[in-house]
Write a structure and sequence with these properties.
This protein is α/β, with parallel strands linked by helices. It has a single domain, classed as NAD(P)-binding Rossmann-like Domain (Rossmann fold). About 40% of the residues lie in helices and about 20% in strands. The chain contains 9 helices and 9 strands. It binds NADP nicotinamide-adenine-dinucleotide phosphate.
Length: about 260
């Protein structure tokens, strides 16, 4: 579903392809905040955001509407990042509207809090499928399109401080999936550094989004805020600022970095 924009926009005597950033899970939480931030930052710069969602079309559409109000193109694509054909649909839309320069590999899931001994094979497979396979597939499709491009491509993987803490008694599966994202970030960054692509990860701590409701404790951020040196949970916009910076040319010498953003925790 598209909300606007042709494949390229005339900006003078030559046609400059529209630059495209894909944000998986761009309809809610950190992904939506990143879309809003990029809309401000790229306003009037011939940019287009492809926002994927898996279930909440209305949320994704309202973010897309807001993005277009800033003069930035926006499309929404229904896609489960764990399904390869769905991932292809996201990038087919990116190809339709312009040239891919950014990927925010943000979509992720958190299952209910569980002791390690109760983790089922079914749960583990779903966590790996969305949080690892989905991130790998999206990065693979992005690299194919960004390699040796005329402008630097930038991939930002959304990992978690949980990769370091391990999330005992809560979600060791989730934490381990983010550990895999960190390892992929470092390896891929090295592999494609010579192809004009930067790859980094952000590792948020406790951030006020709906993901904690999926984990079974909507009050989790406030409950644990006392453990955060800054004394509060983070806002999605604070994570979005870092992601937007890593996407931008201001971060031109940053690659293979795992950037913690957890209020000191
Ligand atoms: P959120 O508010 O629950 O949003 C998750 C987003 O991911 C939604 O847009 C959702 O789409 C999408 N999504 C979920 N499963 C998907 C799938 N299988 N395929 C495609 N999209 C899918 O979560 P959030 O807190 O913003 O999380 C974003 C990222 O930040 C995740 O990778 C998470 O692990 C990471 N993170 C969050 C925190 C935190 O405290 N919030 C901390 C560290 C890291 P729908 O809207 O269609 O459901």
């Amino acid at each position: 579903m598209n909300t606007n924009d042709p494949a390229s926009v005339s900006t003078g005597p030559t046609q400059v392809p529209t630059q495209v950033t894909v944000i998986t899970g761009g309809g809610r939480g950190i992904g939506a905040a990143t879309a809003r931030r990029l809309a401000q930052q790229r306003s009037g710069l011939n940019h287009h955001l492809v926002l994927s969602y898996v279930a909440n079309a209305d949320a994704a559409q309202s973010v897309a509407d807001l993005v277009t109000e800033h003069g930035v193109g926006a499309s929404i694509v229904k896609a489960d990042v764990a399904v390869e054909a769905d991932v292809h649909a996201i990038f087919t839309e990116a190809d339709r509207v312009g040239r891919l320069t950014g990927l925010v590999n943000n979509a992720g899931i958190l299952d209910a809090m569980s002791p390690f001994v109760d983790l089922t094979a079914e749960r583990l497979e779903r966590t790996w499928a969305v949080n690892i396979t989905g991130v790998f597939l999206c990065a693979r499709e992005a690299v194919k399109r960004m390699a040796d491009g005329p402008t630097t491509g930038s991939i930002v993987n959304v990992s978690s401080r949980a990769a370091s803490f391990g999330s005992p008694r809560e979600f060791i599966d989730y934490a381990a999936s983010k550990g895999a994202v960190d390892t992929m970030t470092v390896g891929l960054a090295n592999e494609v550094a010579g192809q004009n692509i930067r790859v980094n990860a952000v590792r948020p701590g406790l951030v006020h989004t709906d993901i904690h409701t999926s984990g079974g404790d909507s009050e989790r951020v406030d409950r644990l805020a006392a453990n955060v040196p800054i004394g509060r949970g983070g806002q999605p916009e604070e994570i979005a600022n870092l992601i937007a910076w890593l996407l931008s040319d201001e971060a031109s010498y940053v690659t293979g970095a795992l950037v913690d953003i957890g209020g000191g925790r």
